[in-house]
C-alpha cells in the first residue's frame, strides 16, 4: 500500500515516517510540508493513502481534499479534536489525534489496507463478470437468475462493516444516512438511497418507497399499501406499485 504524508510540522512527519517503517504492508513514498508540492506529486504518481494534517498554512487538509477529483484513501492526523466531525464528511478511513501511539497508527493503517483489498477484489470481480458476459452474451437468455453475492461492505463511521446480504431485512432512509436493518443489528451508513440501491442485486431487493428498500425473500405478506417484514409494517410509496413484488 503506497502512501504519502502531508503536514507542516517536521516532527509530525518524522513520527509518521518512523511508524510507517514498522508496518510491513505500508510503503511511505514521500512526505511533504507543502501541500501544493504534494498536489503536484499526486498528479504524477499513484498513491493509495494519504496521512493528512487538517490545520496547515495556506490551505487546510479539508480544502486540499476538495481540490482532488479522485482522492486516495485518507487518514487525518491533527492535534485538534474538534476537527473530527468535519473529517467525517470526507469519508476518511480514520482520524488520528496527536500525539498518537504506534498501536493506534497500525489500527488505522490496517483499516485502510482492508478497504483497499475490498476495492481491488471488487474490480477483479467486475472484470471477470464483464469478460464472462462478452463470451456468454449469445446464450444469456438460457441462463438462470444469477446467484446473489454473499455480502457487501458498508461504511459505518470510520469502518467498513461486512453485511451479509441474506441477513438484510430492509433499508430505511433517515436524513443523510441509510439504515440497514438486518436480522441481528442496525447499521447506519452515510449515503443516499440511490447509492444503497446500487449496492444490492435488483433481483433480490426492491425499492417500494423513496425511503425504503426491502429484501424480497423476507416479505411475509403485502397488500396495495403496505409490506410486512419481521413484524414491521413498511409503506408502499404512491409512486411505487405493489405489483413489482410479484415480479410484474
UniProtKB/TrEMBL annotation:
Keywords, comma-separated and alphabetical:
DNA-binding, Phosphoprotein
Q: Which Pfam families match?
A: LytTR (PF04397), Response_reg (PF00072)
Give the species: Runella rosea
Instruction: Pinpoint the Response regulatory domain residues.
Output: 2-113
Q: Where is the HTH LytTR-type domain?
A: 152-224
Q: Which domain of life is it from?
A: Bacteria
Which sequence positions carry the modification called 4-aspartylphosphate? 53
Does the keyword Zinc-finger belong to this entry? Answer: no
List the InterPro entries.
CheY-like_superfamily, LytR-like, LytTR_DNA-bd_dom, Sig_transdc_resp-reg_receiver
Molecular-function annotations in GO: DNA binding; phosphorelay response regulator activity
Q: Please give the name of this protein.
A: DNA-binding response regulator
